[in-house]
Amino acid sequence: MRIHCRVAAIALCLGLFLLLYFLGGNGADEPPLKEVEKKDEQFPPSRVAKQSRGEPQRDDRANRKEPRIPSRGASVSAKLRQKSELGRSKVTRAEDVMHLAVVACGNRLEETLTMVKSALLFSIKKIKFHIFAEEDLTEQFEKGLSQWPRPLTSKFQYSLYPITFSVGNAEEWKRLFKPCAAQRLFLPVILKDVDSLLYVDTDVLFLRPMDDIWKFLKAFNSTQLAAMAPEHEIPKIGWYSRFARHPFYGVTGVNSGVMLMNLTRIRSTLFKNSMIAGGLSWEDLLHPLYQKYKNHITWGDQDLLNIIFHYNPECLYTFPCQWNYRPDHCMYGSNCKGAEEEGVSILHGNRGVYHDDKQPAFKVIYDAIRDYPFGENLFQSLFYPLQTKFLDTVNTLCGRIPQVFLKQIEKTMKAVFEQKVIRHARAPHRQRR
After folding, report:
1. Strand order in the sheet with 254-262
2. Whole-model pTM?
3. Sign of the alpha-carbon dihedral angle for 373, 379, 380, 384
4. What are 165-208's pLDDT values in tens digits?
């Protein structure tokens, strides 16, 4: 009996021991949740900071495993992202470059270089110049542009092109109005890789950034593909409204000395005309249009443009007269309200006024920009001499309204000063703080 009691006691003790063993082991495998929270709270601040920045930890097994798993899909997607970012950067760079075209023949070298200089002095974005010139001027342009200082040359690129006409008689086109002026009509045909372009005559001067007129491209509606200013503001003294023997745009016609173009739209549009019922492309329209009206036009290519937009008025955007300010706006009395309010934005010295004494107000501005030494203070070396010399013109027809000529250029120079001097002065100040 005693032996049976001992065996039962031993079995009971063994059962209790096994039960405690299993209970203790399971408890050790699953520590209480509160203890985990306490351990997390004990992480050093520096380690927590690394976690928040996404830096890998040495004891994080998941982070250790990630580099060991090759993923071709991830590599492909990364390459696609790089390509898309590269594509976006190319688009951005393309949008950051403005295109400006000019045609120079004969003795227009100095005038053209002065125009280019005025565009570069004030513009913000980089400019690509498309210079169409006679063969004997090409080398002179290269020499003149290469002599400008490095900070300026980094702001632009240029390409030189020969004078070419894709349809009709080249010599006839070349002699139309002024030498080579008709070349502008063929820009959409020649510059096939250029989307938008500003064309200016050689006798144009920028008195504010070219960027500002470039913005008019965004103001175009869905049918507009070019922009010009009216030839005149008052019909009774306008040339087209009094003397034209051919159709022209609007009431007073338009002046083509400053012409903003969306070349892509021009190339893809069929233009209405008086010759055939259907529309004609730009290139197919030019020669037959000239043949029909060549005995009735006075101002050559400008007249042809007026005829085109007479039949296609929905295609033209007109910008205010201060963007193409000519002697006609002041020699018969001031008749450009926009210039009176805002000042001249682009000065167009047609009639040869930069090179004679008929309108000294125009000549003073041309001489000041031509003679300005690159790198010198704009106020001291350009504006103050210009302001002083302008006083000698106040008794002339155009010089009697000096604020029209000086308001915008003074405003532009202040903006350039703030950009170049004040912002540069603030940067070191921030660094010291």
Report:
1. 156-161, 126-133, 97-104, 196-200, 254-262, 226-230, 316-318
2. 0.76
3. positive
4. 877 777 788 777 676 888 999 999 999 999 999 999 999 999 99
Handedness of CA 189, 193, 199, 201 (dihedral sign): negative
3-state class of 99 per DSSP?
strand
Is 65 strand, coil or helix?
Answer: helix
Environment class of 284 (CB within 10 Å of its CB; exposed 0-12, middle 13-18, buried 19+): middle
- CA distances to 53, 109, 148, 347 from 124, in Å: 38, 25, 18, 19
Q: How far is CA 357 from the centre of its chain?
A: 36
Share of the chain above pLDDT 70, in %: 74
Give the amino acid at 62: A
How many degrees, rounded to 5, is the angle at CA 296 between CA 294 and CA 299?
80
Cβ atoms of 315 and 269 within 8 Å: the answer is yes
Dihedral (Cα; 196, 202, 207, 213), 10-degree rounding: -20
Closest CA to 164 of 132, 126, 122, 197: 132
C-alpha to C-alpha distance for 353 and 393, rounded to whole angstroms? 13
CA 55 to chain centre: 42
d(CA 85, CA 249): 45
CA distance 21 to 138: 100
Q: How many other C-beta atoms can be found within 10 angstroms of the C-beta atom of residue 156?
A: 19
In 339-348, which positions are buried (b, 16+ CB within 10 angstroms) versus exposed (e)? bbebbbbbbb
Take residue 246 and report the two structure tokens written for it: 């051919």
* CB neighbour list of residue 94: distance below 8 Å, 6 or more residues apart: none
